[in-house]
Amino acid sequence: TQLLEQSPQFLSIQEGENLTVYCNSSSVFSSLQWYRQEPGEGPVLLVTVVTGGEVKKLKRLTFQFGDARKDSSLHITAAQPGDTGLYLCAVLSGGSNYKLTFGKGTLLTVNP
Amino acid sequence: NAGVTQTPKFQVLKTGQSMTLQCAQDMNHEYMSWYRQDPGMGLRLIHYSVGAGITDQGEVPNGYNVSRSTTEDFPLRLLSAAPSQTSVYFCASSYSTAYEQYFGPGTRLTVT
Questions:
Q1: Which site among A111, B21, B39, B98 is 20 to 30 Å from B85 CA-CA?
Q2: What are the DSSP calls for B42-94, one per residue?
Q3: Is the peptide bond before A8 cis (omega within 30 degrees of 0)?
Q4: Closest by Cβ to A104, choosing from B40, B92, B103
């Protein structure tokens, strides 16, 4: 059973559109991270959310941690081709501060 | 700062060969880790280290060895390469735990 379920798996949109991707679980987490991975590169941390209901904004990206701390969403406003990439959520797992578990990611393509 | 560096960027091995994937960081991070990324499987933790001389297994450790003799370096050894080890390998580091890691650019390994 996958600890983190990300949806959709693939998303292809036109420049200027808005979108939301999701990261869901049946487990409760103390915090959750979002990374973005561009083709041929390693993942880069975007944000860490730690409080249930927390909303964080990073320019056109809005991250929300669910009230019950079981899920998170990432909303992109007016998507641009530079937003293209694999969006990954990740949580500490197994009761350890040293093991990070990733979801399988949402592959976003923004067409000009 | 160079951040996290990995060598080589690409490698082709024959089944049964051994090799070492190099990883170095210049941020004085205590925590370092190795992941493999496969299509449809996401990023999976192979081994990690919480400091020089201390290593532990992750989710998929079989067929891989690690050691940490210095804070800066964390090499990953493939003892006898198998086609199932064809993957993209990422090294990452962070200050103290698995959270907020900095990733290297990856090594793309093909085993024939």
A1: B98
A2: EEEEEEEEEETTEEEE-S--TTEEE--SSSSB--EEESS--GGG-EEEEEEEE
A3: yes
A4: B40
Q: Residue A1: what pLDDT?
A: 61
Find the CB nearest A92 among B56, B90, B98: B98
Per-residue pLDDT of chain A (112 residues; tens, 9 = 90+): 678 999 999 999 999 999 999 999 999 998 999 999 999 999 999 999 999 999 999 999 999 999 999 999 999 999 999 999 999 999 988 778 889 999 999 999 999 9
Kindly list the residues from chain B whose CB atom is less than 8 angstroms away from the CB atom of residue A90: 43
